[in-house]
Amino acid sequence: MLSSINLIVTLISIICIINCVICNQVFTNSFYVHLNGPYGSDVAHRIAQKHGFINLGPLLNSPDEFHFLHRALPHSRTKRSISHTRKLKNDPQVDFAVQQSGFKRVKRGYRQLILGPEHLSLNQEPSDPYFPYQWYLKNVGQNGGKPKLDLNVEAAWAQGYTGKNVTTAIMDDGVDYMHPDLRENYNAKASYDFSSNDPYPYPRYTDDWFNSHGTRCAGEVSAKRDNGICGVGVAYDSKVAGIRMLDQPYMTDLIEANSMGHEPDLIDIYSASWGPTDDGKTVDGPRNATMRAIVRGVNEGRKGLGNIYVWASGDGGQDDDCNCDGYAASMWTISINSAINNGENAHYDESCSSTLASTFSNGAKDPHTGVATTDLYGKCTKTHSGTSAAAPEAAGVFALALEANPNLTWRDIQHLTVLTSKRNSLYDSKNRFHWNMNGVGLEFNHLFGFGVLDAGAMVALASIWKTVPPRYHCEAGSIQKTIPIPSNESLFLHIDTSSCAGKDSEVNYIEHIQAVITLNSTRRGDVTLFLISPMGTRSMILSRRPKDDDSRDGFTKWPFMTTHTWSENPRGRWTLEIKFDGDKPQKGFFKEWTLMVHGAKEPPYKDLPVLDKNSKLAIVKKAHELAFTH
């Protein structure tokens, strides 16, 4: 099974590189070096020194893969340095070496034009002066919000869960670990600065406080309670680690990989509020080493239980689709969207079928009613926003669940998210995406996934949870044929599948579905894709992207993912619908569609007691029993 996982990782990483549109390719002064034996760090240091490089250390603790840096080269240039690469390749102990390309990764939710940092003047309030502003923790209707539209954290706290013995790593621009609301919960052993290569991930100073992003996210998770400073974190007794990796002109695969693979047995949750550029035309995702780090994390991290990777779904708004972001759309991450305090989607929210759930960002009527949290240099803010703010809130809820049941696997967290998230008062302000029900009775929304996280319900179910059966993946069928896409009507394609019945990879209960698709068109942004399951669930796996005017690259084996068919039986006919949605007629060609089914062979919830007959758990268990009976 592991070898097939590695094949998937390699495939997806190659896909992401192929689909990434790089107008002006950039090469950094970093080099990936693979030795021809497991020589270890001492030999790597000698090789680096001999050729004028610095060895920054192994890749993912490997004995034969290393990250070299050459300080005489500029951090970014438009041409490869053939001479430096040749020096390394000619060394008898080097198998091969590759100069690292650079690419952009942007923070989500940071608004450079919003009001600057607020200088908090503490008064005689007993503690947590900003808690009344934390409407996403307790919404009583402040600032025009919808009462009880919140994360229901007080119900989790009342059950005694506050995040103890759980560490969340904030992968960002650094964390102000000297902040009085964070320092008691700071986990120095799990922290590192991959931008400066030292153990101190303190943010780099700028006049505009641009590097406040990570500190704000950290406070949402782990700000201390009842200390009279700022507000309170969702999991206020949990630990927070800082991984500074986002503060350099260009990202590299090696920095991302080492960040996501850093201390996987000390870190439980990795929170990422960044991704490819949210410009509505970029199609990009993790490269090879980064994919390996994530897959290793979910398979081996937390001593085999699997790390939890939480991802902000994106701030590209209705002109973008987060299924074109290979991080947020990954099966191995939990993609989180946001809502504002009256239940609407935020104007910057992207939609896609890979979003699992939602939390909160900013207020509806008052632009200053954002997320109240810690800020740089001991300050506090009420203006943090975007899906950047949403992802750490989810990380905090997951920290509460892990305290309730430390034996939860990464898949258990995803199942708990699906089963306990609530529709509540969430709605699409433009009336585009409605709430629908899938084939086993689970409500979902193209914007909000399975609803807003409910911390009280999640920890209650986590405390009695039984680990789900093993996960399998099945290549359910494939069509490889060049077919013209009509300009004014839909193209329908069908795959009939037994979902590997009778084989070792049999899947009977869906978790994730991937439609791996190759096509091109005269305007990629006008292509829309829908996937219809045998049980009748219709997922929009690609929406119109009006800013994407690509006419050359199209999609090459891009894995469009949907969670909307969660817990359905995959057997039967799957239908792919392709059509153009634009102002002008377009032409295109479909070339390939492979259907990948991921999930369990055995029923995942059969041993769980039903405490509420109206709960999602009760509904899905009943649907599974009926399906099995018939």
TrEMBL record:
Protein name (Swiss-Prot/TrEMBL): Neuroendocrine convertase 2
Family indicated by similarity: Belongs to the peptidase S8 family. Furin subfamily.
Organism: Tetranychus urticae (Two-spotted spider mite)
Tree of life domain: Eukaryota
SUPFAM superfamilies in UniProt: Galactose-binding domain-like, Protease propeptides/inhibitors, Subtilisin-like
GO biological process: larval behavior; peptide hormone processing
GO CC term (a single one): membrane
Enzyme Commission (EC) number: 3.4.21.94
Keywords, sorted A to Z: Cleavage on pair of basic residues, Disulfide bond, Glycoprotein, Hydrolase, Protease, Secreted, Serine protease, Signal, Zymogen
Gene that encodes it: 107370069
Lineage start: Eukaryota, Metazoa, Ecdysozoa, Arthropoda, Chelicerata
